[in-house]
From TrEMBL:
<keyword id="KW-0560">Oxidoreductase</keyword>
<keyword id="KW-0479">Metal-binding</keyword>
<dbReference type="InterPro" id="IPR050770">
    <property type="entry name" value="Intradiol_RC_Dioxygenase"/>
</dbReference>
<dbReference type="GO" id="GO:0009712">
    <property type="term" value="P:catechol-containing compound metabolic process"/>
</dbReference>
<feature type="domain" description="Intradiol ring-cleavage dioxygenases">
    <location>
        <begin position="129"/>
        <end position="157"/>
    </location>
</feature>
<dbReference type="InterPro" id="IPR015889">
    <property type="entry name" value="Intradiol_dOase_core"/>
</dbReference>
<dbReference type="InterPro" id="IPR007535">
    <property type="entry name" value="Catechol_dOase_N"/>
</dbReference>
<keyword id="KW-0408">Iron</keyword>
<dbReference type="GO" id="GO:0018576">
    <property type="term" value="F:catechol 1,2-dioxygenase activity"/>
</dbReference>
<dbReference type="InterPro" id="IPR000627">
    <property type="entry name" value="Intradiol_dOase_C"/>
</dbReference>
<dbReference type="Pfam" id="PF04444">
    <property type="entry name" value="Dioxygenase_N"/>
</dbReference>
<dbReference type="GO" id="GO:0008199">
    <property type="term" value="F:ferric iron binding"/>
</dbReference>
<keyword id="KW-0223">Dioxygenase</keyword>
<comment type="similarity">
    <text>Belongs to the intradiol ring-cleavage dioxygenase family.</text>
</comment>
<dbReference type="InterPro" id="IPR039390">
    <property type="entry name" value="1_2-HQD/HQD"/>
</dbReference>
<dbReference type="Pfam" id="PF00775">
    <property type="entry name" value="Dioxygenase_C"/>
</dbReference>
<protein>
    <submittedName>
        <fullName>Hydroxyquinol 1,2-dioxygenase</fullName>
    </submittedName>
</protein>
């Protein structure tokens, strides 16, 4: 088949995919081609606009490095990340809602004992975080891992300033005790703009959008026999809760980071200055049973 035009090219590409061995890959690529070609026809895409799109995607790839994933940022700001998340997590009652991973997760965060202060060199208002991990049915989950990370009081993450900090900070992994509980100290994170000095930032500016995210702490919670939970807890007094640049806010994930005067904190620590306290309990979705064999 040859001499393709705007009406025949789509069928020709789909036919070339007919022998794809993996049926799921075949289904995805076939749908992608059909929707992509329909989009090009729908907007009557010009050659110059096609070139601009290719250049944009090229710059997006070039902006990626070990600590920055511009394609995840693009997915986040277009709502694709939250759409995939919504399709993947139709949760039962008692399970904590999920949200986006974000571009600053570090897989090898140091494990620390419960009660540790993970702020390191970060300065700011002290924050005590207390919580528990249970199965969606309410049973405590002992030995669950709780990965946490957050921005500093200026809205920057440790991986954005490793040289200045001398290493990771405001980031750690904990394990729950026999009753599923954990707690740690850090500092109060600030709201911040997502990195907007690259192609995603240019896209936001071109569409009249701001790049800001409300203040939050990231959590990744895992326990044997349960689905891993990826979520944030947002500060109820933060701006941008209703216009998060990556569409990640859910009402159930907004909590009070309660202000306290100097005194004895709930974990018994003597505080000589005001601090904040976040108390939040996480429910994990049981993993689906796998068939034997």
């Amino acid at each position: 088949m040859r001499d393709f035009d705007e009406h025949t090219i789509t069928r020709a590409v789909v036919e070339r995919l007919a022998d794809t061995p993996d049926p799921r890959l075949k289904a995805i690529l076939t749908s992608l081609v059909r929707h992509l070609h329909d989009f090009v026809r729908d907007v009557d895409l010009s050659f110059e606009e096609w070139q601009a799109g290719i250049a944009f995607l090229t710059r997006t790839g070039q902006a990626c490095d070990r600590h920055r994933q511009e394609f995840i940022l693009l997915s986040d700001t277009l709502g694709v990340s939250m759409l995939v998340d919504a399709l993947a997590h139709r949760l039962r009652e008692g399970a904590t809602e999920t949200t986006v991973l974000g571009p600053f997760y570090v897989a090898d965060a140091p494990e620390r004992p419960s009660g540790s202060d993970i702020a390191g060199p970060l300065e700011g208002t002290p924050l005590l975080v207390t919580g528990s991990v249970v199965s969606a049915g309410g049973a405590p989950l002992a030995g669950a891992t709780v990965d946490v990370w957050h921005a500093d009081e200026d809205g920057a993450y440790d991986v954005q300033q490793l040289d200045a900090l001398g290493g990771l900070a405001g980031r750690a992994r904990f394990r729950t005790d026999a009753e599923g509980r954990f707690h740690f100290w850090t500092i109060m994170p600030a709201w911040y703009p997502i990195p907007d000095d690259g192609p995603v930032g240019a896209m936001l500016k071109a569409t009249g959008r701001h790049p800001n995210r409300p203040a939050h702490v990231h959590f990744m919670v895992a326990a044997e026999g349960h689905e891993t939970l990826i979520t944030h807890v947002f500060s109820a007094d933060s701006p941008w809760l209703d216009s998060d640049a990556v569409f990640g806010v859910k009402t159930s994930l907004v909590a009070d980071f309660v202000a306290h005067p100097a005194g004895t904190a709930p974990d018994g620590r003597a505080m000589d200055r005001p601090y904040r306290h976040l108390a939040y309990d996480f429910g994990l979705e049981p993993a689906p049973a796998r068939a034997a064999g």
